[in-house]
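Thread: flavin mononucleotide complex, take 2
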Amino acid sequence: MNAVVIYGSCYGSTQAYAEYIAQELSCPAVSAKEVTRADVEGRELIVFGGGAYAGSIAGAKKAAKLEKYFGQARLLCFTCGLADPAKAKTQDEARALLNKAFPRHAGMPVFCLRGNMDYARLSAGHRAMMAMLMQLLRRKKEPTEEDRQLMQTYGEKVEFLDLPSAQPLIAAVKR
Ligand SMILES: Cc1cc2nc3c(=O)[nH]c(=O)nc-3n(C[C@H](O)[C@H](O)[C@H](O)COP(=O)(O)O)c2cc1C
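Output below.
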């Protein structure tokens, strides 16, 4: 299939999924930092995946600038985050952000996958964002199970990356 996978990844989890999907589809995986019009024009299928970062999706802005060159390509998207993909909230947020980023393809299939986070590797900016989030969570009167998990793992290594969990996306492409 004439496809391409475009990804936005800060620490490698989304990139790992993108490369896994690209390998399964025998197509290239291109970072949103480097993607150009030539990478997307004339494709039958474009997969976009981005890391979830507090209400934004890494790489989405850059990839969305090329949406006008997607032509007749089908677009499938995935996000990569720590939030539980089984929760409706996780899926609804991802859909809303991606529909906004790619308005010509709004309603595209969206898959939520889980990635890793290693606090020791975070940039100063991301570390500060997580510290602020922790302050908010600690003040919460009724933290959710997910809030509790995030507080318990604060400062540590969280490993949710599971490449085969991208298989439903691959099956949807082949359908
Ligand atoms: C500052 C910051 C904000 C984050 N916000 C979210 C979020 O809103 N939802 C989520 O599921 N994960 C969130 N994460 C976790 C990342 O999405 C997760 O670590 C993911 O694996 C990152 O993918 P990447 O390594 O490809 O960048 C956040 C992480 C950081 C450091």
